[in-house]
Design brief:
about 475 residues; 9-stranded mixed sheet; about 40% helix; about 20% strand; globular; binds adenosine-5'-diphosphate
């Protein structure tokens, strides 16, 4: 089966969050099942080196204001289709945000172009290669199904995966013409979102199948609390919507072979984790003498992630004898609050503002527990890395966090199956209680070792989920063949 995967990010080339990890890991996870994936993404400046030696497979004299070409190259084991368009993607800084703050003002054209070219490629634009299935990711690829539909030609079936419904790609309605899409699509059951053009809305409306990244988030998305205005449409798509849990790349994230750790370790030889713990304490300026748990956070700093609650809960955390090492960036106010906390609780709270992949590995290796107090979390990857590294997840009971962590309640402890701590509702008080509960577990060395080992043994790779994607691709192909809706 030939698969065209369309996204705005893909690890290890360009990453701002979990989307990139998933887009980068799926080709390798699907390959053993006979799926040959090509990942299409913009040729940002960061990919200039990767594009060297690439061959041109499509060309446009004018793609929304300038020339463009599609390049084909294989790098880091992934077959890439890179959309090169200087006027859209050759600019410094963030792939989404302008240095002046806020989104790039022409994001509608930038990602509209990605969708348009993906649809052209799906319709046979690349000589000698037509995908059997198209897989669009998030709002940046949300218009692919609309472009396919507009072609009027027989098209491959298209799936869209919603990695986070909070990001919908909403733009002024007049852009529908700018993007060359028919006004007929601008209806409440099509591209219109309360008077705006909605990329993700269109994707959910027109794709043959909709998936999201955990079963609980799939259910949550049908409710006003989590659906962000799209709950009605998602509920209406009914059985076409499936939650498939993200996996992680268990080769990249492997404490037994991780070059970013001072000493590797396994479930059988956990002693090596202590070397990483000491390295984290040193890097974050934390006392080596504290005897409570060392928590880490690796995250975008946003209210979605509930980290404002963590700032409020810091007195309780420090009061419990614990330490915190936080790596993150995002909301400027929150960055300032955490920096201030690091001064106030010197030696107990260490903060590094920034994005550092290698340091995130060291933190997973060295911390005792990882805090993920998200208000909503479609899947969440850092708790999965935590499980793999014996770093006990302490998480809000939401979305994929609810699906991947088994709470250390008395019954689960008695059965010996607990892997972490969950709390609900997502409030300061509940977080503080979770921190105290974690401290109590930590002080019971035998109980803690069981939690750590249970987590490390939990399957967190792609084995199950790749089969679930495969089954849906098969359903879509069968439905196309039969001429029925998938
Ligand atoms: P989201 O996609 O909502 O940001 P996820 O938990 O799904 O959250 O994925 C976040 C990914 O980004 C993980 O791979 C995490 O390790 C990584 N990450 C987040 N912040 C940082 C940071 N400051 N430095 C390094 N990696 C980070």
């Amino acid at each position: 089966m030939k698969l065209l995967s369309v996204a705005s990010e893909c690890a290890p080339f360009v990453k701002t969050g979990g989307l990139a990890d998933v887009v980068g890991a799926l080709p390798g996870a699907l390959a053993p099942h006979g799926v040959q994936t090509r990942v299409m993404l913009p040729r940002y400046p960061a990919l200039a080196g990767v594009a060297e030696g690439a061959s041109q497979v499509m060309h446009y004299d004018d793609l929304f204001g300038g020339p463009a070409r599609l390049l084909s190259v294989r790098a880091s084991g992934i077959d890439l289709l890179l959309l090169e368009a200087t006027h859209l993607f050759d600019r410094p800084g963030s792939i989404y945000l302008s240095p002046q703050g806020g989104d790039w003002p022409d994001n509608v054209r930038r990602f509209g172009a990605l969708c348009r070219v993906a649809a052209d490629a799906a319709l046979g634009g690349v000589a000698g290669w037509v995908p059997d299935v198209v897989h669009a990711h998030d709002w940046q690829a949300g218009l692919v199904p609309a472009y396919l539909k507009q072609s009027g030609a027989p098209t491959p079936p298209c799936m869209i995966t919603v990695h986070n419904i909070a990001f919908q790609g909403l733009f002024d309605a007049h852009n529908i013409g700018v993007l060359g899409l028919s006004g007929d699509f601008f209806t409440p059951d099509g591209l219109e979102y309360f008077g705006h053009l909605g990329f993700l809305k269109g994707g959910i409306a027109f794709a043959d199948k909709v998936t999201t990244v955990s079963p609980t988030y799939a259910r949550e998305l049908t409710t006003p609390e989590f659906g962000m205005g799209l709950e009605g449409l998602i509920a209406a798509r009914g059985g076409d919507v499936t939650g498939i849990l993200n996996g992680i790349d268990t080769e990249i994230w492997n404490p037994a072979a991780d070059a970013d750790l001072p000493q590797r370790y396994t479930t059988e030889s956990l002693a090596g984790k202590a070397a990483s713990r000491a390295a984290v304490q040193q890097r974050f300026g934390l006392d080596q003498t504290a005897d409570g748990p060392l928590y880490c956070v690796i995250s975008r700093l946003t209210t979605q992630k509930g980290l404002d609650l963590l700032i409020q809960a810091l007195p309780a955390l420090v009061g419990d004898g614990a330490q915190l090492a936080l790596l993150g960036s995002g909301d400027k106010g929150m960055e300032a609050d955490f920096i201030a906390a690091a001064h106030r609780y010197a030696g107990r709270v260490g903060v590094i503002i920034g994005y550092d992949e290698a340091l995130s590995h060291l933190l997973q290796g060295g911390a005792d527990a990882i805090l993920v107090p998200s208000r909503f979390e479609p899947c969440g990857l850092t708790q999965l890395y935590g499980l793999r590294y014996g770093t006990v997840p302490v998480v809000a009971r939401s979305g994929g966090l609810a699906d991947t962590v088994i709470d250390a309640n008395p019954a689960a402890l008695a059965m010996g199956c607990a892997t972490g701590v969950q709390f609900s509702p997502v409030t300061r008080t509940a977080l503080e209680q979770a921190i105290r509960r974690t401290g109590d577990l930590f002080r019971d060395a035998a109980e803690w070792q069981t939690l750590v080992r249970n987590g490390m043994r939990q399957p967190v790779g792609w084995e199950q989920s790749s089969l679930a994607y495969l089954a849906l691709f098969g359903d879509m192909l069968a439905a196309k063949r039969d001429g029925t809706a998938a």
